[in-house]
Amino acid sequence: MAINWFPGHMAKTRREIKENLKLVDAVIEIRDARIVKSSANPEIEEICAGKPRIILLNKSDLSEKPITNQWIRYLTKENIKVLSVNCVNDDGIKNIKPVLDELLKEKHERLKNKGLVKITDGSWNS
């Protein structure tokens, strides 16, 4: 007999994320820059498959820059961008929107061609 130790609130949250994921264009995942691998949800790859994603390595001021840069190179893929940030002092936060715009550019172009999105000052608006 297998015993499931997965807490009920985590199962509920996972189910709600899967249900609501179809309503979002992209996912922003926040990890701790000091413990990049262990601060990741092991199911996030499966849950967010197919969605553009930004991984924010937060608390970058407390991590070693060369190691953080190695993680950025390792985690960056075609549909996944990785940024080093410090949410306490807003370091790197201004880089999120341009990267998000880049990830969603193709989708926004399709919507623009349908007349559903317009560009005003170089940024995307609905």
Write up what this structure looks like.
By secondary structure, the chain is of the alpha/beta class. The protein has a single domain, classed as P-loop containing nucleotide triphosphate hydrolases (Rossmann fold). 36% of the residues lie in helices and 17% in strands. The protein is built from 5 helices and 5 strands. The chain has helices at residues 8-20, 44-47, 65-75, 96-103, 105-113, and strands at residues 27-32, 53-58, 80-84, 118-119, 124-125. It has a 3-stranded parallel beta sheet with strand order 1-2-3, with helices on both faces. A two-stranded antiparallel ribbon has the order 4-5. The radius of gyration is 17 Å and the shape is flat. The chain starts with 7 loop residues before the first helix and ends with a strand. The mean pLDDT is 88.
Structural class: alpha/beta
What is the CATH homology-level superfamily? Answer: P-loop containing nucleotide triphosphate hydrolases
Using the coordinates above, name the CATH class.
Answer: Alpha Beta
The backbone outline, from C-alpha atoms, is: flat
**In CATH terms, what is the fold-level topology?**
Rossmann fold
Sum up the structure in keywords:
flat; Rossmann fold; 36% helix; two-stranded antiparallel ribbon; single chain; 126 residues
